[in-house]
Amino acid sequence: MTQHQESRIDARYDDAARERIVVEPPKRVDAPARQPFERDRARVVHAAASRRLAAKTQVVGPQTDDFVRNRLTHSLEVAQVARDLARALGCDPDLAETAALAHDLGHPPFGHNGERALAEHAVGCGGFEGNAQTLRLLTRLEAKTFDADGHSVGLNLTRATLDACTKYPWGRELAEDPHGVHGDGSPRLVVKFGVYDDDRPVFDWVRRDIEGRQKCLEAQVMDLADDVAYSVHDVEDGIVAGKIDLTALDRPALWERVRGWYLPHSTDDELDDVLDGMRLQASWPTTPYDGSRRAMAALKNLTSDLIGRFCGAVQEATFAAGDGPFVRYDARLEVPARTRLEIGVLKGVAAHYVMSTDDRVALMVRQRELLAELVEAFLRCGPDELDRPFADDWRAAADDAARRRVVIDQVASLGDASAVARHRALT
Q1: How far apart are CA 220 and CA 328, in angstroms?
Q2: Which of 44, 91, 247, 426 has its CA 20 to 30 A from that of 78?
Q3: How many other CB atoms are found less than 10 A from the CB of residue 165?
């Protein structure tokens, strides 16, 4: 992309989009010249919370083997998909990539299973939700900048970047009843919302002059990239692990799983047609995966083709729906119904052959018990056992509800192994 093209794209984002909570002085004249959204991306990349994603569950625990994806590798893959799609649509690629890099920062140990456990123990302090925790982390917990009153404003990202990170732009009081399952196979039992009550001021600042639940285009790109990445890559992981053979799918059982988890109103004929359409792709395997280098290359070509298939269909439909510009609130991402079905079928393949095992269900029960016990142990021990930032928050807390929120923040910050270690030490 030429410098002229960069300037043209940047001009589509006004001063309000580039505004930060705390005004920052210009950088040194000898520092590399970077656009505001490029600075935002760098801040998320260098954040401690980003590094901690390497120790957090994606589908199975990070310590399972050397190949399995964790939250960090997943986020990097989502970021690549988001950046490519944003560039194709004409919105700022750094902005979409930053939202993708940040989208899982608020996830606690053990993924959505851990989210469920913390939500149950945070009822008295405003609840817990991974996306609301992401906003809290970006604007408070991951300290880089302080305001005039001495309060942390987190990484002090631009308004447009924080808005792009907001997957659910509403509070807990407006959340709908959960249904279905997450990408990792755990049931959706946690209501989805994007802000806690005590983070409402910064949320209102981000959403200034925006009405209702509308998401900016960059947030929609991030959301789709997340969906595309885990639908394709979970199948890839399952194939390499020897649990999925795309040449021998049990369609009747698979379609029951797809309907039960993702596409409740789909018919066998409809799903057969969708799968048959994907099998026409030249890279779809005709022989079982054998672990050879040739098979590895063929599998990588398949994942690349599927991602290109989904993103290409969305790009074409979005361009067909309007003239743009495809930026912020001037456009809407259009996902064809056929593409949603194809993604749902891939999710169902991973769900049926990888996620629905008795040993995994039993493990998830124990993980929730561990986090519940850890929350209660921290509440008993008080600030002496908390990390220094959370100990300071505890001492500044006005009541028991605020202190419980501090403990929830502490537990949510831990990786899988460190949660187990802290539990062992405290109980």
Answers
A1: 10
A2: 247
A3: 30
